[in-house]
Amino acid sequence: MSTIKACIFDLDGVIVDTAVYHYKAWKRLADQIGLNFTEHDNELLKGVSRVRSLEIILELNHVTKTAEEQTELATQKNNWYVDMINQMTPAEILPGAKEFLEACRAAGIKTALGSASKNSSTILAKINMAHLFDAIVDGNHVSKAKPDPEVFLKGAEALGVSSAECVVFEDAIAGVEAAINGGMKVVGIGEPAVLNKANIVLSGLDKMSLELLHRL
């Protein structure tokens, strides 16, 4: 008999794909200050905090900025990003995400969001999905970035379940590692070759089912 009592979902790349908005905002910032930044570079920022993302871009260009300058740049990027996500609609929910969350809740399985994003509440409101989560733990509630398991452990705590009773859904290597570090099972959303540490890897939540969940 399955012991799974809760599912914890990353946001970007699992529920919605805001990577394109992150890329556009970081690209605009990089262009403004004369740095190189490509879509390939953007892959390094998946599941990474805003502050660390900026550090990576600066490191790639062998550029240093003071802490004050970094704060200013990260804030500018976020302002552009927030402008874009404020235009989001439910049409941007990834295939199967809403349906699987609804199925979990109907089956009595608790749900939580576990995301590095500090804008998760805005996004969930725009796509009308906030009501499908029993708990929301995001970048406003944690101090340690994935692969540290803090965000998922806080999610389990908020749901009142143990790590062993949780399954995490993640599209980033750092997120998969964070789930494993937290003692949780993990479903990778993306490429099997990239997310090979996950228990299983699917192309999206439209390929997920309660039957598959209980076989993990």
What order do the helices and strands follow?
EHHHHHEHEHEHEEH
Low-confidence stretches: none
| Strand residue content | 5-15%
Form type:
globular
Number of strands: 6
Strand arrangement, major sheet = 3-2-1-4-5-6
Coarse structural class: alpha/beta
Integer average pLDDT = 95
Distance between the termini: 11 Å
Rg computed from alpha carbons, rounded to a whole number of angstroms: 17 Å
Which bin fits the share of residues in helices? Answer: 40-55%
Question: Biggest β-sheet, characterized?
Answer: 6 strands, parallel
- Number of alpha- plus pi-helical segments: 9
Supply database-style keywords.
6 strands; alpha/beta; globular; 216 residues; single chain; 9 helices
Helix and strand arrangement:
Layout: E1 6-9, H1 19-32, H2 39-42, H3 50-60, H4 67-85, H5 97-106, E2 110-114, H6 120-126, E3 135-137, H7 150-159, E4 166-170, H8 173-181, E5 185-189, E6 200-202, H9 210-214
Parallel strand pairs: 1-2, 1-4, 2-3, 4-5, 5-6
Please, could you describe this protein's structure?
The longest helix is centred in the middle third of the chain and has 19 residues, at 67-85. The chain has nine helices and six strands; from the N terminus they run βαααααβαβαβαββα. The N and C termini lie close together (11 Å). 41% of the residues lie in helices and 12% in strands. The model has no long low-confidence stretch (mean pLDDT 95). The radius of gyration is 17 Å and the shape is globular. It has 216 residues and is α/β, with parallel strands linked by helices.
